[in-house]
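User: I'm writing a tutorial on reading structure tokens. Could you give me a worked example: one chain, its sequence, then its tokens, then a sentence or two explaining what the tokens reveal?
Assistant: Sure. Here is the example chain.
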Amino acid sequence: MNPRLRALHPYPFEKLRQLMAQAPTPPADLQPINLSIGEPKHPTPPLIVEAMKNAMAGLSVYPPTKGDSPLRNAIADWIARRYGIARPDPETQVLPALGSREALFAFAQTVIDPSAGSLVVCPNPFYQIYEGAALLAGAQPYFINAQASRNFGFDWASVPDDVWRKTRLLFVCSPGNPAGNVMALDEWKTLFALADKYDLVIASDECYSEIYFDEAKKPLGGLQAASLLGRHDYKNLVCFSSLSKRSNVPGMRSGFVAGDAALIKQFLLYRTYHGSAISPVVSQASIAAWNDETHVIENRRLYREKFEALMPLLGPVLNVEWPQASFYLWAETPYADADFARDLYGQTAVTVLPGSFLAREAQGVNPGANRIRIALVAPKEQCLEAAGRIVRFLEKTA
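And here are its predicted structure tokens:
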């Protein structure tokens, strides 16, 4: 067996299952409400379903690893529209992927030399794929802690020079998971300077980019930041996006990688052997999704309504603020987060995710400790019911 498998940590939801097994059985009259996992629950738009139905002839052919040309062109067009930048070259700077999760993992295997003693800098808390990708590629993760005083951003200057010298890959997530913070242009400028100085690659996870609350204030993306700073070749930058959250199709597994053509070329070589080609059926449905914004605007409206309804309830009893984007609340707990989540479930049948499960102890602290992630993915009525139960639980435990 691959010895690196032994280095992998249990996934947060496996830890959550073990924790919930320790909880008392919730009252029988309460319907369980799961707000722990970021799985979209809004209906899949009919136009995507219809496009997939009409593409079934694609089941009779092998899909190209590079993806269908019409899909690459649709993605390039969307990037240009969404970010107001020059259209990336669909031949060399865009590569369809089986969702961002698959691509984030595989990309690390492409750029890391396992014999070089490389480090991978990861945000903390983080999406656990970053850590697993680093470990299985033969590197070690170095965690930089989110700071509440920086709106859960990072002090990049705190990373020692000897760490940067060993770093081959830097994972960033904007809008962030779990806090929903968005990286500003000055922060991107800092990261690009680090990438140039230390010849490291930035992997920007942007799967929450289309879940925001003000139509006039779209989150800044990595390719957009690079363009604004004159880095039109996207040197040392690759961005990852997905239709899962944007278009409510997590089961379709469709996204893309875009950026530095030299890195995309090597990633395509890896994927030729990895066998991660998008089916023509999914390709046609994806084209329909990328070409339509009406359903995305409606999706944002539904999330905005939930935040508007819940924040007046939860704000007075929890230390929690609106995120800049995404569909999570990153709330402080009055006592240890795992104990809080277990007790909450046992008394209310509401499941939330302990923040410490999303982080590692680094520099002496776990930056997810004493916080919970609440995913507002369920229908509004269920979210309101859950919020009411949380309020009553907190009133009883005060």
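What the tokens reveal: Residues 196 and 235 are 9 Å apart (CA to CA). Residues 47-292 form a domain with the Aspartate Aminotransferase; domain 2 fold (CATH 3.40.640.10).
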